[in-house]
Amino acid sequence: MSKPKCEDQVALNLWYTIAPIAELEEPGAQQTILLEQQIAYARNAAGEVVVWAHEGVPGGVPEQNTLPVQERYGYVWTTLGSPNSDIFPIPEYAEADRRNIHAATFGVNVSAPRLVENFLDMGHFPFVHTDILGAEPHTEVKEYFVEVSEERDEIIASNCKFWQPMAAAASSGGADVDYIYRVPHPFCSVLYKSSPLDESRKDVIAIFIQPFNQEQVRVHMLLSLLDDANNDTDIRLFQQTIFGQDKPILENQYPKRLPLDPRAETPIRADKSAIAYRRWLSGKGITYGVIPPAA
Amino acid sequence: MMSDLHSNWYPIASSSDLPKRHVYQAQLLGREFAVWRADDGHVNVWENRCLHRGVRLSIGINNGTELKCQYHGWRYANRTAGCTYIPAHPADAPARTICNNTYPAIESHGLVWSGEEASGDLLSLDGFDSATVLRAVPVFAPMNMVAEALLGYGWDDSCKGAANDDGSVTVTAGDGTAVRIFVQPMDSNHSVMRGLVNQAPAGAGRAELLQTHSWLMQELRDRVEVLAAKQEAPAPYEPVIAKVSEDLVDIPALGTDGRKAELRVQLVKKEMTAEGIVSLRLEPIKGQLPTFQPGAHIDVHLPNGLVRQYSITNGPGETDHYTIGVKREGDGRGGSAAVHDSLQEGDVLAISAPRNNFPLRRDAEHTVFIAGGIGVTPMIAMARALNAQGLSFEFHYFVQSDDHVAFKQQIGEFERALTIHKGLSPEATGAKLKEVLAEPGFARHVYICGPGPMLEATRGIAASQGWTDEAVHFEYFANTAEVDDSTAFEVDLARSALTLQVPAGKTILEVLREHGIDMPSSCEQGACGTCRCGVIEGEVIHQDVYLSNAEKAEGKSIMTCVSRAASDRLILDI
């Protein structure tokens, strides 16, 4: 691979999801883009997943100069740099009674950090996901906790509660739903949502963002659910409806990159997790997909 | 060069681009605008960006009085672009400094004109008073190249083009028919031609005129775009996005505006609205009035030196004036008499900017308003806001008689939600309130404003019917209790690292002021909540009528104008 187009060393050294493993059942090499670099992926004759960078036509599966590969959570992960840590853990994925579903891969014309903030945000539920994840006039974002775990290098927002009109299929009216959010990777997030079936456990929804460039991404969404009532198609359709509602909002954000200057936008208490996220990104020295604060 | 362009007026839309309740997306010199007409006819040209998370306001909702962002439902007022409501925090009044960037706008000759720093009048458009607005035709070419090509525009051999001082081109034919075409620079390499013809035929004549010029301008467009494609495209403009004000970055700090009368207004209309109640319409002498929220009040500085607080009764989006109601108080201290007897239409008054210490939650499934007498004024603004949003409420107005019903037209908007209770005895009022407050419940709130005894009684009834403190909101006109200022104590200011002595006979507020600490205040008798301040340590004698019982028991805040220490020392969060 020649010199990468992305000049952000922090972003280069991260692991990225580039495709659900199921896509490798297609014959031949598949192509995609990561951080402006064309890459291809395929299974070789031995059945191993191979990922490589290329310009123009990808050619056959190479034996040398391939990129690092991991298969994790049902996806192919790779990197253009030298990661100094492993892919973050999602222990729930391995629990035997869960259903792990690839819900969708969605293209969005926005920067990765704007998408992460949208995923962390509860205040938009009544306005963007009307009558599904929220409904006017129940618009209050109650106080919640945010901490940055030094040990795990991730942001955790807990004790998040939001009133939802139909918290579960079985409920007869609205109720507060509990959420916990994790941001264990600058461009990935995991949320835990009260399960209607088991009070002691939570459904897991994770997003893994694959930046094509600074202002265009695709996002892979993993579900790890305790639900055994709905079929895969209905569950996917539900998530895709939600995503389809967020997409036009995200694509109308200006600027598309996330401004890290505290005076660029107007945060409120409900945005505590976003404030922590912006500061965490600043601290990491990330420049990809953001507008760094003026020196 | 840039600043020259920014001080010009350019047409950015046709009047017909702004039908009722629409938001139009325009662009000038690389900067996007959200352009919308309020129901009162005012054309707003705003930065096309919600201050919160940068979402385009052109995808927002124009409800006729306010523009609502699609992402989090923030509401911005007609004219001022000030934020009136943040749904994520329904109990809080948004900071007054949350205000979007607005740009000058003139609507004239069927076009809407703007410019980042445009001022003064448009150049004369004499001869185009009865004009036809042509279809706007975009051109992917720089503005100057389009203007130059327009000099050769024409529909017959007699046509002659001439450049005007404002950069537009007028093409005149031998028979006197003239077309004036303006070039709107969307960006450095993207322009729009907007033309006016000095004729206004109807029917088939109009259609023919529009078709002819549409075709000719399209032809010109094609020619100019071929030329432009041969040149290197100029770099796009990079409009600077203004930063939000510093005080919005962190949790809002204490205000520093004291008891000030920063606004000058003219009393434009004074009329009796009910027995003993006068309605005053105040308009700005120049510029705009600041954004108000329902429940807000202003300080009015009266000619006799007194300062009084009056609630704003305006509905959402009524931003070109404030209307207040003043009742003549027989036993008052002379404020209301001064309003009734001395003020005349045309008088200039000093007022404060609106303050909202009585914010309205809009996350209730049902809201009950209980107004007694002149206490109706803040309730009118609140109920009009809920009414405009289609939220459920009921409005109970207790008066002595029909002659005492104020603001009949405004409360008439509430239709079936309005009940006027006339001439009830205190006992009958109590019985009625029991009935009205029979159903506390999830997401139900009650707002009370009226004379002290009625307010006390209503709070008591609400509590006994099971309404929680959090669901009962009230505002007293005045603190009628005797305030005891006979104690002496010490206050520590935690953030300013100062220790001050408060002697008998002086308030904390007075002592703070003496030491140069600016603290906002308004009524200075423990009723309005403006001089509220956090308490970190120490026992408090509250003496105010602003805080709820739960808030008083918590002891986390005081009104510096009346509250005192029960202990030797208070540590305040200042």
Number of strands of chain A: 15
Q: Name the assembly state.
A: heterodimer
CATH class of the largest domain in chain B: Mainly Beta
Number of domains of chain B: 5
Largest protein interface, residues of each chain: A-B, 29 and 34 residues
Could you give a short account of the major beta sheet of chain B? 6 strands, antiparallel
Taken from the alpha-carbon principal axes, the silhouette of chain B is elongated
What are the secondary-structure elements of chain A, in order, as H or E?
Answer: HEEEEEEEHHEEEEEEHEHE
N→C terminal distance of chain A: 33 Å
CATH topology of the largest domain in chain A: Naphthalene 1,2-dioxygenase Alpha Subunit, Chain A, domain 1
Instruction: Based on the coordinates given, report the CATH architecture of the largest domain in chain B.
Output: 3-layer Sandwich
Count of alpha and pi helical runs of chain B: 10
Segments of chain B where pLDDT lies below 50 for 5+ residues? 251-258
Q: What is the total number of structural domains of chain A?
A: 2
In short:
Chain A has 295 residues and is α+β, with helices and mostly antiparallel strands. Chain A has 5 helices and 15 strands. Chain A has helices at residues 9-12, 112-120, 125-128, 232-250, 272-284; strands at 16-20, 30-34, 37-43, 49-53, 69-72, 75-78, 99-108, 145-149, 154-164, 175-185, 188-194, 202-213, 216-225, 258-259, 290-291.
